[in-house]
């Protein structure tokens, strides 16, 4: 079995740009929600003339779904707030004629009113419901899979100790905000899904990539707890925690 230092050094050297999770193969698994976000998005894309993916990361999920859609939108757009990811997304969307706008997660969307048939977003940092409602055309759809409150709490509390129950909005709060913005919520679901890490390097890479799990994470600051986690994984075979996922689909009334 590889040493703690070797696993951590490898994880610290791995790039964290984009939302490609292939690095975790054989080292971590995450259960997928029952609703199948990609399948839903592929179906919605086939009926859209203009599609916008908000906070697209490197465009990985969006382009995969575009490639599998029975009919592709004539206009393909995306936003991304982190420059390295925006660069990846531009490359990924180029074969679809896509344009990527580099704007922050909470900035206004750089689009005119009532110009988009479909807005999608997988794991957004925040949802600006008024902006989403503004850019959707009457009859347009917003489809999103989000990260719910308390996601991977067991991992965060292993490193940090007990944490307050704050953070991402609850599903009920998101539904209320969407409704207040003038959207009609047609689907709202949530599910807890199993996450399993089989070495401490996978934990380090995950925390460097999914930065909101342990804000300000660094190996140096959390080395003692990471070493304890390494020992636990060697003893038990893995470390298990649970993510919390939300599905929201909303429409702008005609």
From TrEMBL:
Tell me the Gene3D superfamilies matching this sequence: Vaccinia Virus protein VP39
Q: Where is the signal peptide?
A: none
Q: State the source organism's domain of life.
A: Bacteria
Concerning InterPro entries, the annotation shows: 23S_rRNA_MeTrnsfrase_RlmA (IPR052939), Methyltransf_11 (IPR013216), SAM-dependent_MTases_sf (IPR029063)
Q: Where is the Methyltransferase type domain?
A: 52-142
Pfam families linked to this entry: Methyltransf_11
Q: Give this protein's Gene Ontology molecular function annotations.
A: S-adenosylmethionine-dependent methyltransferase activity
Q: Which PANTHER family match?
A: METHYLTRANSFERASE, METHYLTRANSFERASE TYPE 11 DOMAIN-CONTAINING PROTEIN
| Protein name in UniProt | Methyltransferase type 11 domain-containing protein
The organism named in the record is Modestobacter roseus
Upper lineage is: Bacteria, Bacillati, Actinomycetota, Actinomycetes, Geodermatophilales
């Amino acid at each position: 079995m590889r040493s703690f230092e070797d696993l951590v050094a490898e994880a610290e050297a791995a790039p964290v740009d984009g939302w490609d999770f292939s690095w975790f193969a054989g080292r971590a698994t995450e259960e997928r929600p029952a609703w199948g976000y990609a399948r839903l998005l592929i179906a919605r894309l086939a009926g859209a003339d203009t599609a916008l993916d908000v906070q697209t990361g490197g465009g990985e999920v969006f382009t995969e779904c575009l490639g599998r859609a029975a009919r592709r939108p004539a206009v393909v757009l995306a936003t991304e707030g982190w420059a390295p990811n925006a660069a990846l997304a531009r490359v990924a969307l180029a074969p679809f004629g896509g344009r990527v706008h580099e704007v922050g997660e909470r900035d206004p969307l750089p689009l005119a009113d009532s110009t988009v048939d479909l807005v999608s977003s997988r794991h957004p940092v925040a949802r600006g419901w008024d902006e989403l409602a503004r850019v959707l055309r009457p009859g347009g759809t917003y489809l999103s899979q989000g990260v719910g409150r308390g996601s991977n709490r067991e991992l965060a509390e292993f490193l940090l100790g007990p944490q307050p129950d704050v953070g991402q909005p609850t599903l009920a709060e998101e539904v209320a905000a969407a409704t207040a913005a003038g959207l009609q919520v047609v689907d709202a679901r949530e599910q807890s899904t199993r996450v399993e890490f089989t070495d401490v390097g996978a934990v380090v890479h995950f925390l460097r990539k999914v930065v909101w799990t342990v804000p300000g994470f660094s190996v140096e600051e959390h080395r003692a707890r990471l070493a304890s986690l390494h020992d636990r994984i060697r003893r038990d075979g893995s470390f298990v925690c649970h993510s919390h996922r939300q599905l929201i689909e909303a429409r702008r009334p005609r």
